[in-house]
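Hi all, long-time lurker, first post. I run a small reading group and we've been trying to get comfortable going from sequence to structure in the token notation. Rather than ask abstract questions, I figured I'd post a concrete chain and ask someone more experienced to write out its structure so we can walk through it together at our next meeting. Sequence below, copied exactly:
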Amino acid sequence: MMRFAITGGSGFIGSNLTKRLLKGNHHVTIIGSIKSSSSQRLKSILNKIDVKDVDLDDIEILKKELKGFDVVAHFGASASTKTGFQKTDVDLKRNIIATYNILEAMRTNGIRNLIFPSAPAVYGNPVRIPTPEDTGMLFPVSLYGAAKLASEGMISAFCHLFGMKAWIFRLGNVVGPDMTRGVIVDLIRKLKKDSDSLEILGDGNQKKDVIYIDDCIDGILFLFKKSRNVINVFNLSSGTVISVNKIAKIIQEEMNLKNVAVKHSGGSIGWPGDVPIIKYDITKIKKMGWKPKYTAEEAIRLTVRRILANN
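-- Answer (accepted) --
Happy to help. Here is the structure in token form:
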């Protein structure tokens, strides 16, 4: 049994990781407040976990509360490329500074192991598609991507200087039934509001590498056990892509909607900071002995069916 501290533990990925760790008989403490909008995800297990209501901005409190853990899984962050375009300091505060605070609290308390979710946004508009982990130079096109890349650099420095190890996962678009944002949720909401017409941002040809939530958690825990370098960086996704237009078509099929008038806002991206094509090279994780169960299309269809069944 290991003692895990999880920031962002009530979020979509963090809550699923929490549940999986409990099944493995690990002790889990959530660091940070549980938002009322996310509390439903943890309702069934609140009596099995500890919660420390700590602001990740308060480094002194973090140093006091982050004691006695074997692993920190730092999932607490701003999680959208759109937000930074509207408020340019959000990714600085919630991603870069919060990550530094976690690392410094770990150093102070002698905690040696960190799990960190990064993102395809670190690659910017990659020149190599599929994109492997050793692609460079990296030029993010969103403040979110810049913050993730800066966090990766800071994590690497702390690990090499202070005897830590880190598992950095550049996650694809993670989907699953308890997600509350993203293209699937947006399109379902639009069609429930108006089943006759649908606007798709961009030209709809944007291609995204998708991973189902169960595959995501399986991959994280498998590689955490298997890979033991100082810095362990992995693309974690299905290695397959799906277009936004295809996602919209699947949603219409699952909602039994026909003759929907689809229109596009135009352009190759949906918003500033969006990337037209994201496709990971997952050769590295396959060589480690892990592969996803679901393709991008299978993950989308399964997610849509479960969201619709739950609402």
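A couple of things your group might point at:
The chain has a mean pLDDT of 89.
The CA atoms of residues 228 and 241 lie 29 Å apart.
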